Amino acid sequence: MFFPQIFTCGKLARRGVGEAHGAVSIINAISTGFGGAVGVDFHTRAFVEPVEGGEIVLVNRDAVGDDSLVKEVVRIVLERVGAEGLGFRVTTSSDIPIAVGLKSSSSAAVAVGLAVLDALGETMGAEEFLAAVAEASQRSGVSITGAMDDAAACMLGGLVLTDNYRRKILRHEAIDQDLAAAILIPEQRTYTREFRKDLLMPIKDLVMEAFRMAERGDYWRAMTLNGLLHAAALKVPTSPIIDALAAGALGAGVSGTGPAIAAVASYTSIEAVRDALSRHGSHTVVKRLVNPLSGRVSR
Fold this sequence. Notes:
The protein is an alpha+beta fold. Helices cover 34% and strands 28% of the residues. The longest helix has 17 residues, at 104-120.
């Protein structure tokens, strides 16, 4: 099969592919700028093909609903590698439910950015790449803080703690391979563009305490404190969180701004935890936690 190659601005571009996982929240960064997330075994793939004229087109825009993030990711990655002006046709596919807090936007941004690097035969350090993705997320209005924590977990796997405004990874660790996540996925949707940050200001100091707890390595209790705080502030029912804990979850809470509820447990307890969540809605899934493979973006 023939794929086009375009040579512009000293860069040869060809077809590129990128992949990323999903993630669930440990600490929501919206109120403080400090966040944490852990990678889970959802998948996003992105394919890019160079086109003449410098246009950036998301082929499956109707299915995704918005192409602003994809366009910003492509533009910023091209800027970073000195290939401004190149055009790409972009196609994404994902099994991550949209707008429920499972990091579908961050996963797509990472996959598209990696696909562009792949198309150009370029590499970037992980933190530099994630800072570019965070800038694109903020510019496009998809994220309030840039969501570097979410993007890092989607790309690197494992558990990450970040300073989103300074674009710094503060911690990146592997997770016990005996752990999985049970996730309750309601039908409602929450879009960041429409989200009111002021709803979280009353819990800001307590969320910072949860982040400090995570910094001390007490990740699952930090996840629970963060999850209960955000559920209360956003008027999301807390009973699924409590029931998951009673069934053996190590930590549970609202992921992102919800409405999805994620609970982390050992494999010996995960089905009981899933059953507990199932009492609050019919759509539940179990996903393994994804551990790190590499600390660099090298395609």
